[in-house]
Specification:
4-stranded antiparallel beta sheet; disordered C terminus; 18 strands; 3 domains
Amino acid sequence: MYLRHTVRRKDGKTHKYWQLVRSVRIGKKVRQEVVAQLGELDARGRLRASELARRLGGHAEHQPGLFDPPLEKEVVQVRLNGVKLERVRRFGDIWLGYKLWRMAGLDKFFEVNLPRGDEDVPWATMAEIMTVARLCEPSSELHISEDWLRKTALADMLCVDEGKINDDRLYRGLDKILPLKKALETHLKGLWAGLFGIQYDLLLYDITSTYFEGRMEENAQAKRGHSRDHRSDCKQVCIGLVVTKEGMPLGYEVFPGNLHDSKTVKTAIESIEVSYGKSDRVWIMDRGMVSAGTLSWMREGGRRYVVGLPKSELKKHPDLLAKTEDWTTVREGVKVHYAEEESEGDLIVLCRSEERRLKESAMQTRFGEHIETALKRLQGRCERAAKPVSLAQVQRQIGRILERNQRAARFFQIDCEAAPDQASGISLSWRLDETEQVLQEQSHGCYALRSNVKEWTEAEIWKTYIQLTQVEEAFRVHKSELGIRPVWHQREDRVQSHILVCFLAYVLWKFLEQWQSRAGLGNSPRTILEELGHIYSGDIVLPTTTGEKIQLRSIVTPEKAQKFILQRLGIDVPKRMKIPELLSKCSGDF
């Protein structure tokens, strides 16, 4: 295992990014596998990560009772032919999720809000099991109870009988945590500000959808609408998420699947203002959120915003788009230009991205060539036809061609009419609308922004707006890493609870991301979880010559790569765990 670095030059500065790499043999070949992206290594970042771990109780010695102290020196004779290894369980990633839950204060939050009663397993424990499972291996409640839990050491850590965790108890756990949504958002406010110094002066809001499998007859919110998952055949709900500029989640709302994005803004903003107060913050939203009524409501309430505008806004500024000079460069390949003030006094800023221009131009060219090729083939078939062809059939084929290549369809003026003098009875011709094509080429890579923050420059407005990538990344993590889709629950309340568990898992995800980033381990929590997931626990059974049996629940010694990660995080894996004589007598303090 060794360190490898790459060098990048940006804004006139040289940056050296480090990776932890190991060699892996596959058959006769050896390839290099990246264990962790370390970023730019610096001593200050490592000290900050270690201090964070110390403050949050990251060391094993802050977990009394759960792990055994070092064994006293004692000599016994062991029968080697009887030594066995039993109850092998996944430990490393589960243990990290267990620690993140406590470091985020969620153990105390649920213990206070879900006090223990007569139930065999506390509901606070059920909430932790569902969230850690969602973080480490997203799956259904049935899979957790029948397969996942028995393969991990989580039940040992929580000191519960895994046999008592069934799908029915997990479903009832979902019902218990749902009423705590607002209280959880209030808890997060103090968490992010206290640990990471997060400010709430700039909030990002966007919306996505998640689809269902099934008829969803018991869920009034399940509707068919615009699907971001390209599953228009399924019913869905929309989820509006609010995050900080660092991507830390603050709250979310669930809306009917057919509700227009702009109609969700008022509900989401008012919900956040209840928890965080109505202060002088700036809201960042994409163009799908924009409507005249929404912006008017925000201005009347004294709210400030930076929003994207529809593509049609560019048609109002053809002269400015035709110009290539006098644009302000905000970074390599990106330029901005102040356009004008709207009647309401808002600023309009045009932005131009060279990378985006090349992409859109290439796409338009490709789709235009597809239309041209398909029309030539259709024209050739009509000319070669020995008998009359149905005009309606040819028109339908033209419609399908344009539908498959919508990005370039508006540039073609197609004439298809009856021609008695031809054998096919059809005359097909087309031409390009050069005026529309030139206007489109000028707008390639361009988009418009609108803001009522008058003290910001065009560059500052653009830099603020592009932070929407944080909420887009949050949606990607929810869907790709935490398995929020598809939803199999049929009842509306269970769907809401499922989304809440995914939100809780995302809180742990961002917590780990902030932690590893400060430790110089990049910003990929999944890499850390997968690497530590190779650390297992197991029971070592040692039969003695006197007929007694010694059983030790031990944790595998981490390998070099795992030790490196743990060292950078400032934590140590314990060597052993206690084996309770009777699970029902275990303390609930772990």
